[in-house]
Design brief:
- The protein is α/β, with parallel strands linked by helices.
- It folds into three domains: about 1-80 and about 275-305, Rossmann fold; about 85-270, NAD(P)-binding Rossmann-like Domain (Rossmann fold); about 305-380, Alpha-Beta Plaits, CATH 3.30.70.
- The protein is built from 13 helices and 16 strands.
- A seven-stranded parallel sheet has the order 8-7-6-9-10-11-12, sandwiched between helices. The protein has a five-stranded parallel sheet with strand order 2-1-3-4-5, sandwiched between helices. It has a four-stranded antiparallel sheet with strand order 14-15-13-16.
- The radius of gyration is 25 Å and the shape is elongated.
- The mean pLDDT is about 95.
Length: about 375
């Protein structure tokens, strides 16, 4: 029986896929795995029993990755599970930032009580909410992952000129991108050419505060910015200065930080990107499947700290080894295991590696010998 700790509400359509051999609970001192959405785990003590954490969503800022890696805890996310939900909200934001829809709706509310005069007042005051059409305008999509590609393709369908930027664009992702999307190799090209810029990159050292005074100065006057990725990608004070000067025409974001609330030109939503029943179901299903595959077979897919390694099972014993990416470790593993190796898969990610070895008739003391090898972080025998 595997114990699964839920730190947030996880859609039952996901947890029901785990089966009778899983005990999914809201409290557990010795979980085998954790399912989490937004709850912070940075102050959580990681029990020795914990093998995996699955984040029902894309971002993993709420999970202490360094600690998990050092302890050999595999951390998963669910890339693409909420991509359509976020894309739809970005497109909504595109219109809201262009046509001042939110401002107009709020202004309409102030007319309540004027009876038959309301229609006349609307006609007189509506000009203040005029804004441009998006057809024929140029939008820059920064980051062409699961969400960015959907946004780029949707913008093309709306007859926009689309420029994409992603230095890490995979072949698989490129095949999903409309052939009408022009890709560039420099953010400066995005800044110089685009009427709209939408951000779809992770928050890492290189992207933190990437939208700031210096980058804004390179943009077209009146540029409209959309940020549905992470609030830390922008320097809020610089956004506000840009709005006040007119350099930025609008800033639409899914991150309602205190300094941006009630600022003219800002449309701030309460982090609604993945708030659809379809998205929550998709994330729950993917997270549950990832955990089940790892706990039962040692297979890794969509990990953010382990290399992705999976293979069909063969032999009578499977050794799953998380170890340092160092010379001779594999040779020492094979020597310690003995027996007849039926199949093996090894991949590395930076300083770490993950190896699955299927063996028939391994040495009786293989587990103890493997754990004695320098560089072994965690061993599972299945």
């Amino acid at each position: 029986m595997f114990n699964i700790l839920k730190l947030n509400k996880i859609a039952e359509i996901g947890t029901s896929r785990l089966g009778d051999n899983y005990n999914c609970v809201d409290e557990c001192a010795t979980p085998d795995a954790v399912l989490v959405r937004s709850a912070s785990m940075h102050d959580m003590e990681m029990p020795e029993s914990l093998l995996a954490i699955a984040r029902a969503g894309a971002g993993v800022n709420n999970i202490p990755l360094d600690v998990c890696t050092q302890k050999g805890i595999c951390v998963f996310n669910t890339p693409g599970a909420n991509a359509n939900a976020v894309m739809e909200l970005v497109i909504a934001g595109l219109f809201m930032g262009s046509r001042k829809l939110v401002e107009g709706i709020e202004w309409n509310k102030t007319l309540k009580g004027n009876g038959d005069q309301v229609l006349k007042m609307v006609e007189k005051g509506k000009s203040q909410f005029a804004g441009p059409e998006i057809k024929g305008k140029t939008i820059g999509v920064v980051g062409l992952g699961a969400i960015g590609i959907l946004v780029a393709n949707a913008a093309r369908a709306l007859h926009m000129n689309v420029i994409g930027y992603d230095p890490y664009l995979s072949v698989e992702a490129a095949l999903k991108l409309s052939r009408h999307v022009h890709t560039v190799t420099s953010l400066d090209e995005i800044y110089a050419q685009c009427d709209y810029i939408t951000l779809h990159v992770p928050l890492v050292g290189d992207t933190k505060g990437m939208i700031n005074d210096a980058s804004i100065a390179k943009m077209k006057d009146g540029v409209r910015l959309l940020n549905f990725a992470r609030d830390g990608l922008v320097v809020s004070s610089d956004i506000i200065k840009g709005l006040e000067s007119g350099k930025i025409g609008a800033y639409v974001t899914d991150f309602a930080t205190d300094d941006l609330l009630c600022v003219d030109g800002v449309v701030a939503m309460p982090h609604l990107g993945a708030s659809t029943p379809e998205s929550e179901d998709n994330c729950a299903i993917m997270a549950a499947d990832e955990v089940k595959q790892y706990l039962e077979l040692g297979n890794v897919k969509n990990s953010v700290n382990f290399p992705n390694v999976s293979m069909p099972r063969s032999g009578d014993t499977r050794f799953c080894v998380f170890h340092q990416n160092a010379p001779k470790v594999i040779a020492k593993l094979l020597e310690a295991i003995g027996g007849n190796v039926e199949n093996m898969e090894n991949k590395s990610r930076g300083d770490y590696a993950y190896t699955i070895i299927d063996v028939t008739a391994p040495n009786a003391d293989a587990q103890a010998q493997i754990e004695a090898v320098d560089g072994i972080i965690r061993l599972r025998v299945l």
